[in-house]
Amino acid sequence: MANSNTQLKTHRVLSLFKRLASGEIIQKSVEAERFHVTEKSIQRDLDDIREYLAEEQIEGKCCEVIWSPTHKGYTLVNISKTWLEKHDVLAIAKVLLESRAFCMSEMDSLLDKLLLQVSPEERQHIQKIISNEKFHYAPVKHGKELIHNLWILSEAVREQRQVRLNYKKENDDQYIQRIVEPQGIIFSEYYFYLIACIHGAKYEFPAIYRIDRIQDMVILSEHFSISYCNRFEEGEFRKRVQFMHSGPLLRIKFKYWGKSLDAVMDRLPTARVVESDGKVTLLEAEVFGKGIKMWLLSQAECLEVLGPAEFREEMKWSVGKMLSQYTR
């Protein structure tokens, strides 16, 4: 009998804690009726939860069960900066929706889990704010689930294990098979990319694979090794690549006289101002590959590329080719 009572109490306490953690308001009278016990028993259960949380606070996890006069019940509140708060959840939800990176089912799941971090009242408020964006959410066209593969590939990166993958290039009906040594995962312009070296190949820079175009993959038992000084650094690579077009490292120099120099500096994190007269600004930047040309051309007549000389000639050719489309 004693053992049975202990099990019932354990179940009751866990139920209360689970619902407190999900943002529910606990009323002693309601819970006493639910579990067929007295309100004093529920109070003791809440005291047990408080004692547990007090011990957890020593480890830096600061939560507390308090009485809410507004709701006439008990609620769990975060009294530290270790949990997401309502404004954090709103900001992350906005970024997720703007990314368009996930299919509808994954986006719904991510938002639902994210909203569980706040109270039901705050959850309802955030849902109203994002409801229009969520209703009109337009995921990218591939429609594939990605989250599981992102985790699998991140494990392969961490463990330095080779991956055999079947990959389909854009506008190509045929799949190619590669054994690669994954270096990192990057998100850019709606898509996730795997940065990897092709096993056995001697290329100056790694290959870039859009993860949604990987048809299937197998994590192999074979490992590869990279010295610490030669490790791939996603952050440094991301600062120097545009539209995920890989290639040799270029140091470009250009003049800019558009409306927003800040937008240029944000787009090119490696850019630095060499000189400026208040109207025209001379900048230098380090970039990988030719994706930078796509961005430079998008600035229309607001800039001029000065170097390298070969790259300047390439820009002149592209501008001339564009002009010819309008003068035929």
TrEMBL record:
Residues 152-217 form the WYL domain. InterPro entries: CBASS_pafABC_assoc_protein, WYL_dom. It holds the Pfam family WYL. This is WYL domain-containing protein.
